[in-house]
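The records we work with from here on pair a chain with its fold. The integers have meaning only within a learned vocabulary of local backbone shapes. A complete example follows; check for yourself that the lines match position by position.

:::
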Amino acid sequence: MRARTGTVPHLSLRCRVASSPIPSGPSPTGVVQAIYWRNGEKAEELRGVERIDLCYHLELNDYRGLQELRLNVKDLRLPQDEIQ
């Protein structure tokens, strides 16, 4: 997972999906974009984190004529087995 913010306080994530019911996964590369609107401040606390649990809606992002599936994140947390 890679977290970054732009000039607006949104969190943009590139996530590698751990498992998928679809044999080829969500994308040919196994990486899917995710956006967590108005939560850019979480980028620092997620720096260096390898895994997170996401609650999201799947959406079709149509930006400048390029269409791709994207996760619209509603909430996230560290997996329960990683909480100390």
